[in-house]
Amino acid sequence: MGEPGTSVPQDTTGAARRDTIWYKARMPGTPTPDLVVRDEGPVRWIRFSRPERKNALTRAMYQAAADALAEAQQEGRIRAVVFTGEGGAFTSGNDLVDFAQDPPTSEDTPVFRFLLALVRAEKPVLAAVEGPAVGIGTTMLLHCDLVAAGSSARFHLPFVRLGLCPEGASSLLLPRQAGFARASKWLLLGEPFGAAEAAEAGIVTEVTEDGGAEAAARRMAEAVAELAPSAVRETKALLRAPMRERIEEVLRAEGARFLARLRSPEAKEAFAAFFARRKPDFSKFT
User: Which long-range contacts (CB under 8 A, 24 or more apart) does 175-184 make?
Assistant: First the structure.
């Protein structure tokens, strides 16, 4: 894990701007950090950076992201947070190798801490999505305030296909935002869907041409950063307040079932099939 580094580059007007980079998470044997946090003026960027694995998320990355998001709430100069991914992908979801080697066994896990940090964030949280957004890569967007997505972005909730169940309070939020029919199709059948449909369902704020999501997210983040900060926070709090307690309740209920599903024979079959590159056989289960 690298040490924080600070540079003070000059912008086009000659004014100094503080850009801070933390190398927050690194897998053993990898030459570059898997998650990079960069402050660009009042906007914190949290970048999933494992392009060779389509930014699959590890426990270390979840913890680093949770810490970076929580720290942003305490930094007075930070007014918005943007999540994005490296190499034309947002995230392919959980790293199943990391997941299988040390599966979560309780709520006190990095992934749950990350989800709670999203739910409890007081400042605006944005996302710039290109390419695949799988599993938590889609469910985390339900907790974002503004989302930009490239036109070829693909969203996928394959929980049932893996012998699992929804997480991230998606069983509550997805029907509320997208309608019961779409939520059932996406969660029960695990069918991928595109950026246009995600925008129609209220998951995505703005669809851009491919490669344009970060620029759109930067524009929105900088716009909100120019507004009265306490008014922004209070407005977000009012928008989120009616569902806040219920979201945390469902988050925990889903988490308990998710943990139980991880130990189920169906999930074991699904994971074995994934690693063997074959189709899972659920015909023997009732």
Answer: 176/243, 177/142, 177/201, 177/202, 177/203, 178/202, 178/203
